[in-house]
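Bumping with the actual sequence this time:
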Amino acid sequence: MKRNNLQVMMRLIGLVKPLTGYMLLAILMGLVGHLCAAFITIMGGVAVLQLLGLYSKITLGIIFTCLILFAVVRGFLRYAEQSCNHFIAFKLLALLRDKVFTALRRLTPAKLEGKDKGNLISIITSDIELLEVFYAHTISPICIAALFTVVMVLFIGSYHWALGLLALAAYVTVGVIVPVITSKMSGANGINFRTQSGELAGFVLDSLRGLPEILQYGQGEKRVQQMNEMTENLSVQEKRMKRMSNGNIAVTNLVILVFDIAMLFAATQLCEFEGVLIPTLALMSSFGPVVALAALGATLQNTFAAGNRVLDILDETPVVEEITGKEEITFAGAQAKNITFSYGDETILTDLSVEIPQNEIVGIVGKSGSGKSTLLKLFMRFWQVQKGEIRISGRSVDDINTTNLRNMESFVTQETYLFDDTIRNNLRVAKWDATDEEIVAACKKASVHEFIQKLPQGYDTQVGELGDSLSGGERQRLGLARAFLHDAPFLLLDEPTSNLDSLNEAVILKSLHEECEDKTVVLVSHRKSTMGIADRVYSVEQGRNS
């Protein structure tokens, strides 16, 4: 979604509401701290006037006491302000991560199946981390600069109204005009950098996962070349951003120098010596808050680009909304009635009907790409059918609470995903409060218990990232064990024996036939041998019954 920088900023600021008190405290401390810093120089000018006999309202003793007090207070408030800002930033980053993962749970799995995983990882890690700059070093500095400008304009204007206007022009130019111009000149550099960074992360992740194939077919040099090209393009984009940032600093310093000279010249024409020295020193020592804003001109492009990508996740509409508030039901058979489904412009299923009676094993066969796996996902309501209806217990899945629906179903996919954890904890994904006895019983049904017992640490063995320490067949049997542990009345099995040899397949099928007498099973497979346990078989060819 296309948003301008102001829209992104207002959305991000809106998240600060729960921490408004801390933000106001940070702004107050920052304002007082900057005023102390500015008045250290101003009090130095007053001391000079006192020594020259041109100022007698304050003694030198009071002046030096004020200087020491301002210095100490400035140091303390600077530390306290930064601590408060970082506390706000880290709290909000935690809140933002929670919102992002909540959004991802809503979008899963339909919207995420086609996403670039590396780019998604980049968004939920580096992009969110980059927003720390916005929350810690942007919101309060903007407020501080605005309030500080008002105070200093009034102070300088007390010597002559024209000097106050000149000071206002200086602050606005440095703190608003220069950053805005720099931001516009930066154009799409920020969003391009974040996008290319995400693409590189995705390419690296894809290369690591496919490393065996890359080495086997001698594609390593080509992948490295592609990675170098992507890195070089990213470096070029980063150089542009740094060049813009450096140019911003140079322009800001030049503008400050011009206004300092202009203040000195104007004051000599309008005021006596005191009115020349104090306003000039006041302006020269008070650019700190607005310079901080000027520095944001280039860096904020990157931050807003990151914020825009995060907001895209938060604003993305789920293909399938979660359903709540409906009457709970129990499983009593399922049905697909004249359903048509498409992925975008590609039609997968056309006018397909399947009857799944309770306590029967129903086989679904068909060529690769005919829509067998898609049919199971529609029963899970991962996707929304375009025409027709999916029914459970005589009720449309669109009228069943999502939690109720998922509790009635167990879905075993072709590729079982295992977390980088122990076998025991991977199984408990299906039932977190499962006892050890229940886990062992489920594994025995999936014919994987004996294998686990032979491992050095048994059920406490770490499976490794993505389950790489286990074979495809072992991972598949653990997926079946999860389904048995979940103990749902409706089992959806997508090629549950595709990674097993004939002997192990026979063991699994025997277990399914014996253990699922009180369950309803939909068994998808391209193997005719797998269909031997099915009570009825539907053939799906080109998305139709045949």
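The tokens above came from a reply further down the thread. Residues 220-270 form the longest helix (51 residues).
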